[in-house]
Amino acid sequence: MLSAFQLENNRLTRLEVEESQPLVNAVWIDLVEPDDDERLRVQSELGQSLATRPELEDIEASARFFEDDDGLHIHSFFFFEDAEDHAGNSTVAFTIRDGRLFTLRERELPAFRLYRMRARSQSMVDGNAYELLLDLFETKIEQLADEIENIYSDLEQLSRVIMEGHQGDEYDEALST
């Protein structure tokens, strides 16, 4: 899926990305599991090559942050929980080139959903690709902090159950391992 956003009065607004609507006015191009046509469109209209799946999965430090002719590249893990509450990390590729932020990911992620929701009502200070990148990382950190707080709360409850000897059904599985 291809989404594009432009700045209007320092606020992000979604562009209609129909075939006839050019991407040239976008400050942020967000791609989630893009198909070949979407990849080709970004390449032909904006001259931007996108990372391949093996490049996204490369965990070496040299592959996570680098600069080349295609721009500044950062690959970062983002936390998610699936429909069955299984936690995981998904790599997001960020590229900044010619004043535009490109994001490429394999799934919808809570931090991105939250950022898009907030962006509707808040103005950006400078309104550029670097500010977008930093805002997305700030949202990621807030989400991780919330997850850590939730885990801490669960551990506090579990420790009380263990220390007081009052085992409830909801902890049977955790205590039996």
From TrEMBL:
Transmembrane segments: none annotated. One of its GO terms (cellular component) is membrane. This is Magnesium transporter CorA. InterPro entries: CorA_cytoplasmic_dom, MgTranspt_CorA/ZnTranspt_ZntB. One of its GO terms (molecular function) is metal ion transmembrane transporter activity. Keywords: Coiled coil. Residues 134-161 form a coiled coil.
